[in-house]
């Protein structure tokens, strides 16, 4: 997130013989400290730190290249971010971050990054992405929650088309495991058969009809893929136990805590990689999927992601891959999009008076110029692991926040129901039991707002591919930035506060394209304006 202080280098994670050294200065009386993170699947007891003084603990372990999230586990119960590290993850889960390059150098994000002073990875160029994704707006849905089955979703494609959606992301459609199942339906991300369709959703013909109908409307379709695990009762746990992570006694387990319904894959097995690759190629070739979204790819070896990209591109050259990670290295040879959740958090801070537009600009610069040049980020207000944005920001602030999202760079993502203030979604756990969106709560005015914003983004190329610059002297509670390209410069202003805000008088000359509460250089409470301005 927004880095507010310079940490002491001696206590930050740093390169040392044997890998990366982590240091924790504990309070007196602490009995044990463990290190858990994406590098060990968040196992709370896999890396016990050594006490090297009365209060200092340290551990050195090999860490592969890429972005990693981590926490310290104190006395086996308290999971805390690294107090010495100001770099906190963008995922809303308060994890500490570090990035390691191929030479085992530790690249901590530094404050003050900008176009004039980029981070070391910005010298590299990100993988080129297909235009259908780069220019798109993504809509994520669960088939049973949104339409009941494939035919029900197909019947609602006109709704999505009218909204302006052009990338459809479908949550897992394979059968879910039964053993250890949570709820009556189970976790859709606990897959029991990677090659099968859940019969409750339809058959192969109805799935193909859905994909074809989406294509006929100009929509790309992305399949959600659970990458690093299966359900604990997948037949492979019996026929191919060597494909899984195993304890010393040979029993199969998944290292991430509190996930007993999962069995974790061991990607050192080349036959496992070959099977998963072939299965994905079959889904893309047989049903015409345009892309895949990889669940929990932050704990999947990057070299396997690179292999998947090469193999899937042979089937579909303009394939798009979405990585559920914040890893800079995923952009180099594997994935088109990584997550960008910091926009949501910075909007909350601005709405609550804990941050201002200058802080938002610092965050944007630090997160942009620490990534490879041209890296596409998926920006979102809602994610499957988060609750509704109206509950997070307040219902009134939802509209100006949506204006910011749809006017920013990157690829915007909308979670099903977000566009009409659907109230019952609290996280993907609601899918563990029979669940459908509450369409009776439909907010037509909010839907029309999203519709207008998406249409504006489609009409003005600068909102998709233009440069981004933040304005100076923006009043507290408001966000202000520009999107610029050849022949056009748009100004975006949004008031996230409950009081009117006054902008620089020069902005009174904006010609509004889409606005609410804009009078001269003043924005009413929770107002917004997107308009053209002279260069």
TrEMBL record:
Pfam families: Alpha-amylase, AMPK1_CBM. Residues 140-457 form the Glycosyl hydrolase family 13 catalytic domain. One of its GO terms (biological process) is carbohydrate metabolic process. GO terms for molecular function: hydrolase activity, acting on glycosyl bonds. This is DUF3459 domain-containing protein.
